[in-house]
Amino acid sequence: MLACGLPRGSADPVLTAELRGVWLTNVASEALYSRANIEAAVARCDSLGFTDIYVVTWNDATTTFPSETVRAVTGVAIQPEFAGRDPLAEVIEAAHARGLRVHAWFEFGFSSSIDRPADGGPLLIARPHWAARDTAGNIASKNNFQWMNAFHPEVQRFVTDLILEVVDNYAIDGIQGDDRLPAQPSLAGYDSYTDSLYRAGHAGAAPPRNARDPDWVQWRADRLNAYLRSLTERLRTRDPALIISMAPSIYPWSKEEYLQDWPTWLNADWIDYAVPQVYRYDLAPYAREVERIISEQVPERIDRVFPGILLQVNDYNPSPGLLDSMVGVNRQYGLQGEVYFFYEGIDKYPGFFTRRR
Q1: Which residues face 53 on adjacent strands?
Q2: pTM assigned to the model
């Protein structure tokens, strides 16, 4: 593994070089679908001065590496299109040859499926008691994503085992969760397991029917905090040099909607750095969110904040001027890097990344 651990604790030295990262996906991109494509993508990232690649490892109940953890539940060890290959290993090999860091991005986290609200996809078909439930008793579904119950010990063990499988078997530089790890829609929490857990600590009282009741939100966010703390302790025991990063939504929306109290994660040093998804389409809202992060949320951890910038989604790409201005805002506030979503957008900006080397 490359020697690339980031500082843990404000007394440690900060990064001496800019972090420039990019997410590499298996959706709306051909980059992972052959070894040649991977070699070309990594070479492109290297030529443009990127330092870190966040490669999708887990989404829609499948992996981009052969996983015994997933096969034991669904019978499918890898995304079918990748059968006979190991794209994760191929990315690591190509990137390390060029001195780039690779992070295993567990994109779906505690989400079980997309666009399958009736059954939750193969994970919940195989383990129906793993389902998160809303107040109507339906599988929790938000923005077309369906969810496992992030509070259930079997679900937590499954996700932890999946992450440890990568850490134990690959020369990975880091792991990353996002707005689905650790996370749970605040509309969830009405399954029998979570109901019993809540009642046990509240003199038999049922969880509030108002899913956004502040105390109920906090109770569930605390459960996710405890999970993340336990997970990161295990990971650091396994590999002290491993970089642990999270790419959550903007706070406090992240907590209100997905129970992600991520400033606590960073302020408590449970993670090495945060990549908040500051996905805004105009400069003023972008600058406002960055200012809140720096002045209100993690003022003592600004050396460990690298905003996520939206480079491409569907038919949208920011103008070169807006992109340049957003990076300028980051530097104005002392932030020494950013991560771009996602790889397929970088060629829309000829000269931009090479100018910023």
Answers
A1: 22, 102
A2: 0.94
